[in-house]
Structures are given as C-alpha cells and as structure tokens.
Amino acid sequence: MTFFLRRPSASPRQVPGPVVLVGMLAAVGVSAACTPEAVPAAGPATWGISYEAPQRGSGAEAEFLRERHVLEAVRSSLAEQVRLPDGVTMTARSCKDAEAEYDPETGQISVCYEFVAETRDLLRGEERSDRGEDRSDLDADPDERVEGALRETLYHEAAHALIDKWELPFVGREEDVADQFAAHQLIRQGARGQRHLAAVADTYGLYAADDDPEDIDFSDEHSPDAARAANYRCWLYGARPGGHERLVDDTILTRGRSEGCEEEWEALRRGWEHLLKPYREGRDGTS
Fold first, then answer.
1. pLDDT, tens only, 43-93
2. Closest by CA position to 59, among listed 114, 10, 1, 100
3. Which of 51, 116, 153, 254 has CA atoms 20 to 30 A from the CA of 263?
4. DSSP 199-212
5. Whole-model pTM?
6. Alpha-carbon gap, residue 127 to 129, rounded angstroms
7. Residues 45-62: b if buried by 16+ CB within 10 A, e if exposed
8. What are the φ/ψ torsions at residue 133 (nearest 5 degrees)?
C-alpha cells in the first residue's frame, strides 16, 4: 500500500461542505498509553536524498526545492530528534500527477515537481486574489509560504515512514496521525515553523473553497480539506492562543472548537513525544 498526501487526480477529490470537525486527538493521545517495542540496535542512519532530472516544464520547481534545501531541512530536523530508521530515501521527481507519497515497499518518500507547481500556483494565486485578505499570516513571503507547505508534506510522509519502520502503535486513521505529526514538527520549531503551518492551513482552506460539495468522498482515507484546515488552525492556536487569535474566524476554526484547542494540542504533543522517546538516544527531546 502506498500512502499519498493527495489522491491521484483521476479520482474525485474529497470535498467538504461546511467545516467538518473530526475527533482526531485519540489517534495520538490514546496511543500514549501503549509502550513502543524496544528499539533494535542500529548504527547511525541517514536518509539518502536524490533529485531526478525534471521533465520539460518542471525545471523551476526542481530549482526551488534545491535552492531552499527543503528535503535536506526536513531530514536534518528529524535526525536532530531521533535516530532515523534504515531503509528510507527521499526523492524529488517528475510524476504523472501532482502528489507526494511514501511507498512502504521501497521505503521511498517522494515529492513530485508537479505537486510543487500546484502548491506554488495556489499560494501565489492567493496573493493576487481578494481571498488573500483572509489568510492567516498576511506578512509571510509567498515563497516562504510555499516552502512551509512543502515541509509539511514531507513531515506528513515521514510520519508514514516512521510508523512503518518502527511499527508505531496508534489509534485511528493513519492519515490523521500523519497530519498530527506534521503539526507537531512545525509547531515545535517556533515562529518560523508556526508560520509554515499557518500557510498549510490556508492551503487546505483554499482547496476546500474550490471544492464541489457533491464530489465529497466520505470513505476516503484522508479527512476532507476543510477539516484538515480547521485541525491545523486548532493545533496552532492551541499551542499559543495569545499569538494566534486571528486563526479563530468562525468560518474555518469556530469559537466553539477553539475552546478545546489547547487540550487538543497538549494531547497531541504528549502523544508524539511518548512515541518518539525510545528513539531519541540522547538527543534533545524538548518541544
């Protein structure tokens, strides 16, 4: 089974109507009650990174990833926290569809240049539209916001890799747990990481705004775009309510949902810290 960040374009996209609020904290919070198995002995590991030659028209996207060291930054951040499992690689490549994925058969995390292009078009288009006035971080540079969205994508796929290689226990849907891991990673990085997560929430909000409610697929393994936007806003707000009041807009993140966001974030944080603890091997575990 291959884990996609987004389904191939040949399938109908999941599309919410009103914001769907799903109870996702159990996915990590409940798992904290489970003790991971003993970590097998292993030497220092790293994840190889490669950039395949882009097909015609994708050169700018390949250059964007290389110049901003997006893959390298995610790998370095993870390696500072835990002893990385063997057998995982990270690859940027041209694809038929705009997607990112983790393939457990090969251990490869891949991000497609077409996905980079889609993300850039979406967020740069927001800059030129009236909808840009509603975004969560008015001061962020457009390319910085794109980088943030791509980092979240890679953290999401890295979560699938860690769950696979370490056989991590969790409750709920793995896609929801991977979203939680991405939020955990970005929020713990401070102001810049939190700006990145705000950009991700905006990205899913934009997808949701363009969706046709009749096309929603409630059986899809991913939560609807509007729910993912609301969840990311909630966790970000919960981590620092005084600094993210703007995220509570009663459209994506309602006032009622926001009242429980501090508890949601704390449960998420504790859950992932518990799951990662056996793999830290003396590394700094602060969050």
1. 455 899 999 999 888 899 999 999 999 999 999 999 999 999 999 999 999
2. 114
3. 153
4. HHHHHHHHHHHH--
5. 0.80
6. 6
7. eebebeeeebeeebeebb
8. -70, -20
